[in-house]
């Protein structure tokens, strides 16, 4: 973790437990740096206007102004377990899962002691095998979708034949245990779905992608999704 990443992480840590404080010693152990480094980082945050404050005394430490923290989310026990299960079960190849560990830590910090213990016990029972999608590929696809930018990919079909494509991303799809990048394939001049674990390489282009609805990319797929949403609505009703 470089210094910039650590500064963001310090703010996230203090925000997650606001208005409770963290000691320099605790933060030093948490981020694997010296106490002096933590002190310098906290001072730098203060100088840049981040509302971190120091409180003296036996139970003191560094904290962040609660007015800058998100309001607490009142989750029921089952809701907290559902969120924890989703986070713990997210594979490395699941899009936008990289922040799952810090999200789990914040969830545990927001719960009372008994609920947090239950969440920790549950997550110890969930194991996910290593993913086959390269982290660099996943990160590039995430950026392409989030920023709506054209992405170049080298893709292998079911038979292992590789081809190069430029794709205008439309979204991400989970189906039958796999994740897909759904978008407009300029090579095929049609909407296509690309399994993330078959993307061998990916590079983000500077060119913005044209916005297309899912129906414009794949009408059959859009119909199946609408059908699934209708069934879910009926089951809740």
List the keywords:
SH3 type barrels; 237 residues; two-stranded antiparallel ribbon; 23% strand; 7 strands; Arc Repressor Mutant, subunit A; elongated
In terms of topology, how is this protein built?
Blueprint: H1 3-17, H2 24-31, H3 35-47, E1 52-55, E2 61-64, H4 77-88, H5 100-110, H6 113-123, H7 135-147, E3 149-156, E4 162-175, E5 178-185, E6 190-195, E7 199-208, H8 214-217, H9 219-236
Helix pairs in contact: 2-3, 4-5, 4-6, 5-6
Summary, kept brief:
The chain has about 240 residues and is an alpha+beta fold. It has helices spanning about 5-15, 25-30, 35-45, 75-90, 100-110, 115-125, 135-145, 215, 220-235, and strands spanning about 50-55, 60-65, 150-155, 160-175, 180-185, 190-195, 200-210.
Structure, explained:
The protein is of the alpha+beta class and 237 residues long. It folds into 3 domains: 3-68, Winged helix-like DNA-binding domain superfamily/Winged helix DNA-binding domain (Arc Repressor Mutant, subunit A); 77-123, no CATH class; 135-232, Roll (SH3 type barrels), CATH 2.30.30.520. Helices cover 44% and strands 23% of the residues. The chain is built from 9 helices and 7 strands, in the order αααββααααβββββαα. The strands form 2 sheets. The chain has a 5-stranded antiparallel beta sheet with strand order 6-5-4-3-7. Strands 1-2 form a two-stranded antiparallel ribbon. Strand 1 (52-55) and strand 2 form a beta hairpin. Helix 2 packs across helix 3 (35-47) and helix 5 (100-110) packs antiparallel against helix 6. It is elongated. 19% of the residues are buried.
